[in-house]
Amino acid sequence: MAATSLAAPTRGDSSDIHRFRAFLHDGFPGAHGYVLLLGLDTFDLPDLLVALAKGFGYGAFERLQRNTGLPVDTLLTLVGLPRRTLTRRKVEGRFLPDESDRLLRASRLVARALELFEGDLPAAVDWLTAAQPALGGATPLALASTDVGAREVERLILRLEHGVFS
Q1: Is 34 exposed, middle or buried (CB count within 10 Å of its CB: 0-12, 13-18, 19+)?
Q2: Residue 94 and residue 121: Cα distance in Å, rounded?
Q3: How much of the chain is in helix, strand and coil states, percent to nearest 5?
Q4: What is this structure's pTM?
Q5: Predicted confidence band at 121 (pLDDT cuts at 50, 70, 90)?
Q6: CA–CA separation, 43 vs 65, rounded Å?
């Protein structure tokens, strides 16, 4: 299995989301199933680290945008990229390793919300973009633009999965 292979979607985002939902039901082939939202098929850590060091192809951003339905500007804020940098990466065809890491963080966060809402993408996106009292009234996506904020959002998701409402 290639570390950065991108499977061609059959109908927009539906094939990636369909595969993600199937894995939710049947179990993921590895600890990093959230890479599906980037169009990657790299589920084991060594291959994922190699892909990160090389930098993800530009298609990973496009797949994340298509799979989440989030506006490009929202994703740019989430991964901390100016639009001009995105334009350069499109021409170059590849993101830098630290940018790839932030894309990976974004996909992990969306995947955790998808898991919380049992594969219901509109519900997950609504939750991610709505003010959450448990986050001091901030939206999860706004907080997740930093690693500390993303970890806090993931902790909240974990609490909600376990029925601890805060």
Answers
A1: buried
A2: 27
A3: 65, 0, 35
A4: 0.86
A5: very high
A6: 20
